[in-house]
Design a protein that fits this description.
Layout lengths: L2 H8 L7 H26 L8 H4 L20 H5 L5 H18 L14 H12 L6 H11 L7
Helix pairs in contact: 2-5, 5-7, 6-7
């Protein structure tokens, strides 16, 4: 494995399958490459390109995610602590919450996030709000998102 993948995998406390490791490493790589642009896009007031998989990761890869990114119970905490991505990921999630709160639509309409992403947000909340390693900022994001009643699909 390349050095970057070895270092990411070594952070995991449980043995991971090769598929789990590949999906996690791809997620980190996609976040590194895209978080700054996503923040810029959100600064214009809404999501207008394809990136929900990298901001709302769950245990299931998105159907259209070209990199088949996902997390596991074992490696999700590593994403929250990843030095190269965690701060900008947090900023993206908090900006989405700010925009949703400004719009005030409950259940959410598609003014901030397109409806096609609402199910992914629902499952993201479901995973992260009960995840024992979620940091306080993530629990706050989940609480804020949960207030909008995102449907499961």
């Amino acid at each position: 494995l390349p050095i970057s993948q070895v270092s990411i995998r070594s952070q995991c406390t449980e043995p991971a399958t090769m598929s789990d490791t590949r999906a996690f490493n791809a997620l980190v790589k996609c976040q590194e490459a895209n978080l700054a642009e996503i923040l810029e896009e959100l600064g214009r007031g809404k999501k207008s390109s394809c990136w929900a998989w990298w901001i709302f990761p769950t245990e299931k890869a998105g159907m259209c995610d070209p990199d088949e990114t996902r997390i596991t119970e074992d490696n999700a905490k590593d994403l929250c602590n990843n030095a190269s991505t965690a701060k900008n990921w947090q900023k993206c999630l908090e900006k989405i919450c700010d925009l949703l709160e400004k719009s005030g639509a409950k259940p959410p309409d598609n003014s901030v996030l397109p409806r096609i992403d609402h199910g992914r947000v629902h499952w993201f909340i479901k995973f992260w709000k009960d995840y024992r390693h979620s940091p306080d900022w993530m629990l706050d994001v989940c609480k804020r998102l949960d207030a909008f009643g995102f449907p499961p699909s």
